[in-house]
Amino acid sequence: MNVRRRNISGIAVTAAAALGLGTLSACSGDSAAAGNTDKFDVVASFYPMQYLAEQIGGDHVNVTTLTEPGQEPHDLELSAKQTAQMGEADAVLYLKSLQPAVDEAVGQSDVKTKIDAATLTKLEDHGNVEHDHGHDHGGEEHAAEEHSEEAHSGEAHSEEEEHALDPHVWLDPVKYAEIAEGVASAFEKADPDNAADYRKNADALTKKLADLNTAYKDGLANTDTKVFFTNHAAFGYLAERYGLTQEAINGLDPESEPSPARIKELQDEAKADGVTTVFYETLVSDKTAKTLAKDAGLKTDVLDPLEGITEKSKGDDYIAVMESNLKALEAALGAK
């Protein structure tokens, strides 16, 4: 998309092409060539940040994302060209600790407005969260660093405690609304000419999120069971918000099969707690979930952690996919 006229360097233009920015249109639908100076240029780290920037920024922003649709965000590794493109932006919106490559690039960037969503709400420790989903990154040092920090369970240094905090705050509509408020304030300060519109847009978004929260509270208030199985511990905030228990199959490579002991443990728990369904997600393999379901006599369904929107997503934006997730949970938990 649009790289600002004051520095349309070859690197920046190439970076824009490499990012596939032509497919990531701003809300206004403006398809003007690179060099449009009328927009507040925001680089978002991955989809939940992109959605906030687009919803709050409206016609005034040109939003690009570092994580392409369908790419698993934890696996992201930035090229020098992408880092250079970030430096051309007016603001960067990211969630520290979710994507180490982005954290490093932001730290080295001279972009004026850096908005860390993790500072706009309270992160919590939900136990052993498999931050990298068990994927082989092709970056052993990155994976080893995360796993070594997780192994300490946050008992040592502050940095290790930081990595023990669950970053998946966007799956709780209440916490996501808190982040939205903080993003709006940052936009208002960085681009005061359009502050009134940013505030108006943020109010409209927080109203949508409040309605979503009400739908979840009402829909999950009376269910046969409160326990759900998932192959990725992304739903800790959602479970806590609505009185549910997330049972994640942690520490397993998505391509490997769970151990017989783990299968037995889950079979026993499923019977004890009335669990009917093993959830999997759109951006990683469903092999583990389907193996578990077959051996334990359970159904499978999608519970989308909303780390990206693709053609497989059950909805075309955050609200729509969260509504689909609610339907899936209501069915799996036996909502009355």
Features of the shown structure:
globular; 43% helix; 10% strand; 4-stranded parallel β-sheet; disordered N terminus; 336 residues; 12 helices; alpha/beta; 8 strands
What does this structure look like?
By secondary structure, this protein is of the alpha/beta class. Helices cover 43% and strands 10% of the residues. It contains twelve helices and eight strands. Strands 2-1-3-4 form a four-stranded parallel beta sheet, sandwiched between helices. Strand 7, helix 11 and strand 8 form a beta-alpha-beta unit. Helix 1 crosses helix 3 and helix 2 packs across helix 8. The N and C termini lie far apart (47 Å). The N terminus is likely disordered.
Mean pLDDT: 80
Strand order of the largest sheet: 2-1-3-4
Number of helices: 12
Number of strands: 8
Element string (H = helix, E = strand): HEHEHEHEHHHHEHEHEHEH
Task: Label the overall shape.
Answer: globular
By secondary-structure content and strand pairing, the structural class works out as: alpha/beta
Cα-to-Cα separation, first versus last residue:
47 Å
Rg, alpha carbons: 20 Å
Biggest sheet, open or closed, and with what strands and sense?
4 strands, parallel
**Percent of sequence in beta strands:** 5-15%
User: Considering DSSP H and I runs of 4 or more, what fraction of the residues is helical?
Assistant: 40-55%
| Unreliable stretches covering 5 or more consecutive residues | 1-36, 130-163
